[in-house]
Amino acid sequence: MNILVINCGSSSLKFQLIDAQTEKLTAKGLCERIGINGSQITFSPAGGEKIVRQAPMADHKEAIQLVLDALTDEKTGVVKSLNEIGAVGHRIVHGGEKFAEATVITPEVKQAIRDCADLAPLHNPANLIGVDACEALMPGVPMVAVFDTAFHQTMPEEAYLYAIPYRYYETYKIRRYGFHGTSHDYVSHRAAEILGKPYEDLKIIVCHLGNGASISAVKNGRCVDTSMGMTPLEGLIMGTRSGDLDPAILEFIANKEEKSIGEIMTILNKESGVLGLSGGLSSDFRDLENGSVEGARALKAFVHRTAKYIGSYVAAMNGVDAICFTAGVGENSVNVRNAICSEHLGYLGITIDQEANQKRGEEIEISTPDSRTKVLVIPTNEELAIARQTYALVK
Ligand code: AMP
Question: Measuring CA to CA, how many Å separate 283 from each of 35, 56, 234?
């Protein structure tokens, strides 16, 4: 069965068609600048040439129509008709406390996703637009919602509560939810497979280090802590997000520069992280490794924060068997991985195999065989994880 995986943002839409039985990618692509001048669709059939085409897309429905046309195109398409698409898996950012796992989309589920929009105002409405567009164009095809937050719903109260008046949790559900759950789920399961041990017997730390970055502690098959909070702003230093900081800084900047909370939130989300720390040099880690003082300053802080989180999760789980690196930086930055492990994790009995650690973007163990704690690089595959969860619900 072919599963269409859709990741719908406010003006872009990524898609993959995956054969659920073989788990092979059939085609993938991207619609950009939806509803804006200059929109275009990129379509890459597996093993074929990438096709980039300028095409007007007034809204998401028009974008999805172009995706379906590309998939079924007589010459360059990959399926004969839409009947060959068995289900659609949608990435939904926030499932609040309502969804601890993926679910088939019904009118009630859509309402519940709408109810969570308060917690993810930029993402959930955009995700739902993608669901509506697919429903309109693919009547009768089951739609499944796979939530970024679901994997972290196993966190215990002591990990998800903020130390603010409890009524804020009761009234508004202000708590830590965590994100990148599909990735943490996929990578931690893959780690257990690589180690050849039951998932339920392991203590695993997953470092999802990309433009957005988060880290999670998975103990005996359950997520017990994660660094992102009620929103993706908390935790690690990211490309442009600050991660953890003293909340009093907001008032301080507001007073000094007569800025509104909204303006400060934009600074914390878009102008901070390694971009801010490097004095505006770049949010891209490749640019920070250019030998400049500014780049080095940002990288050092990023490594320091990440290593501190790893240490705190070792404490939260009272030990660790494996530490995994994934996402753009985790899969590719030899220097970041080496700095985190060699400068900070010797106490866990970790030695880095310098040759193995030269590899980028592939699944590999980068700790030496005698290391007490294993360090693995595991490329994440959120689309495959969404396709798997979708297939499991509709087959
Ligand atoms: P992601 O959000 O997972 O797609 O990760 C994107 C980020 O990965 C980029 O912004 C870069 O900072 C980082 N990245 C990609 N390739 C490399 C590389 N070869 N070395 C260091 N960082 C990289």
Answer: 27, 31, 17
pLDDT in tens, 15-57: 999 999 999 999 999 999 999 999 999 999 999 999 999 999 9
Q: Is 39 exposed, middle or buried (0-12, 13-18, 19+ CB in 10 A)?
A: buried
- Amino acid code (one letter) for 252: F
Q: Is the CB of 286 under 6 A from ligand 1?
A: yes
Q: Which of 118, 148, 287, 370 is catalytic?
A: 148
Instruction: Please report, for the domain that includes residue 49, its CATH number.
Output: 3.30.420.40
Q: Is 148 an active-site residue?
A: yes
Is 183 inside any structural domain? no
First to last CA, the chain: 8
Last residue of a domain, one of 88, 112, 147: 147
What is the span of the domain harbouring residue 265? 197-382
Residue whose C-alpha is closest to residue 91's, from 330, 392, 384: 384
Instruction: Please tell me the distance from the alpha carbon of residue 356 to that of residue 359, in angstroms, as a whole number.
Output: 6
Cα-to-centroid distance, 275 and ligand 1 (Å): 13
Measure 284 CA to ligand 1 centroid, in angstroms. 6
For residue 9, pLDDT over 90 is answered with no
Res 92: pLDDT: 97
Mean pLDDT across the stretch 64-73?
Answer: 96
Does the beta carbon of 328 lie inside 6 Å of ligand 1? yes
Tell whether pTM > 0.85: yes
Q: Nearest 5°: phi and psi at 374?
A: -85, 145
Q: Which of 237, 225, 380 is nearest to 303 (CA)?
A: 237
Per residue in 117-138, pLDDT tens?
Answer: 888 888 899 999 999 999 999 9
pLDDT at 121: 85
At residue 249, what is the residue type? I
Q: What are the backbone angles phi and psi of residue 224, rounded to the nearest 5°?
A: -110, -10
3-state class (DSSP) for residue 389: helix
Separation of CA 240 and ligand 1 centre (Å): 13
327 CB near ligand 1 (under 6 Å):
yes
Establish if 185 belongs to a structural domain.
no
Residue 387 domain flag: no
Q: Which residues pair with 32 in a beta bridge?
A: 40
